[in-house]
């Protein structure tokens, strides 16, 4: 397999891959380079271009989607009653145990 290792050669290929919708493995096979080449250059490309585009579908058919940070809670507990407790930061397990024990009394 041909080894393409310069930014000048790889960045256009990474941009082409991002638009292609095929897996990195398939793209690499079509262009004749080793499987480990694409993840390396995709990471470098994203670091330089600051892109957070979703990764195209993998061979399993899944597409990675970004999650808006505003909707993510570091920790949340759903009680059997339907009550949901959301914490803005991670808490010690001992505190959570004490809280749940006191709620069940």
Structure notes:
This protein is mostly helical. It has 2 domains: 1-64, no CATH class; 69-103, no CATH class. The protein has helices at 7-20, 24-31, 37-49, 93-103; strands at 75-78, 84-87. Strand 1 (75-78) and strand 2 (84-87) form a beta hairpin. The termini are far apart. The model has no long low-confidence stretch (mean pLDDT 76).
Describe this structure in a few short sentences.
The protein has 2 domains: 1-64, no CATH class; 69-103, no CATH class. The chain has helices at 7-20, 24-31, 37-49, 93-103, and strands at residues 75-78, 84-87.
Main attributes?
single chain, 105 residues, mainly alpha, 2 domains, two-stranded antiparallel ribbon, 4 helices, 2 strands, 8% strand, IS66 family insertion sequence element accessory protein TnpB
Topology summary:
Elements: H1 7-20, H2 24-31, H3 37-49, E1 75-78, E2 84-87, H4 93-103
Antiparallel strand pairs: 1-2
Helix pairs in contact: 1-3
Shape: elongated
Q: Which range best describes the helical content: under 10%, 10-25%, 25-40%, 40-55%, 55-70% or over 70%?
A: 40-55%
How many helices in DSSP terms? 4
Largest sheet: 2 strands, antiparallel
Low-confidence stretches: none
Question: What percent strand?
Answer: 5-15%
Measured distance between first and last alpha carbons: 67 Å
Strands, total number: 2
The total domain count is 2
Task: State Rg.
Answer: 22 Å
SSE string: HHHEEH
Sequence of strands across the biggest β-sheet: 1-2
The chain-level mean pLDDT equals 76
Q: Structural class of the helix and strand makeup?
A: mainly alpha
């Amino acid at each position: 397999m041909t080894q393409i290792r310069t930014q000048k050669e790889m960045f256009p290929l990474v941009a082409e891959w991002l638009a292609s919708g095929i897996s990195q493995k398939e793209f690499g096979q079509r262009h004749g380079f080793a499987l480990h080449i694409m993840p390396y250059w995709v990471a470098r490309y994203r670091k330089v271009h600051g892109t957070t585009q979703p990764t195209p579908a993998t061979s399993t058919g899944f597409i990675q989607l970004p999650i808006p940070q505003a909707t993510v809670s570091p920790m949340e507990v759903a009680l059997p009653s339907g009550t949901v407790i959301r914490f803005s930061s991670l808490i010690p397990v001992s505190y959570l145990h004490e809280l749940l024990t006191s709620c069940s009394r």
